[in-house]
């Protein structure tokens, strides 16, 4: 791997601006490499939603007829997939280019999904009403510095009795060095510190091509921080799961399972969780 990494104290607003510039740059590359032609099939769902929806619907019920906000929706592949499960979807993303791309994807797919540009921290005001479900999955909270503010927005977005669904990379898996895939070697912090992770990497996970704005900032969030933020905001935790597969290649050379996700082999498969799933509800 060629990216440069260090821990660095940074103003959150400056980090936010750097991250947004980077994600704006990713949009044309992801439009090319996300396999959007598959959405011409009206039955097609993203692999993320194909896995998430059955778990979500155990708690929220069938999505048909329900209102749903998708936070950090990027170019809308998961949003359109949720709409195909029957939800009326509002996607929220901080990238204007991503919102424009998601809007066009939904139009072409004939999906009941619309999109607004806003920070996660301003999502409730941007949406302008309460919904049945708030959804966020894969590659999300690492870009956020303040999970208490995040959780308050989720609470504000949900109607009483509404359900929040979350799945993302397991924070323990993210502590290991991807440059040493042959052995699990700790490299990154599990617990939150005063500094952000500063990355300088012009590539993108989706395929060939480079971005112009290569510097990004991320924050580590242990499970306790995520859970306590949701509880502190007034949500009631109803489900937690730690998964053994993940939609992106967290370590080079990982094989794929039948669903197309990446998995570990040997002793590592039984030792290292790759995803964390949480379901919470706003009390009636």
TrEMBL record:
GO terms for biological process: methylation. Keywords: Methyltransferase, Transferase. GO terms for molecular function: methyltransferase activity. InterPro entries: Methyltransf_12 (IPR013217), SAM-dependent_MTases_sf (IPR029063). It comes from the Bacteria. It holds the Pfam family Methyltransf_12. SUPFAM superfamilies: S-adenosyl-L-methionine-dependent methyltransferases. Residues 70-164 form the Methyltransferase type domain. This is Class I SAM-dependent methyltransferase. It comes from Galactobacter valiniphilus.
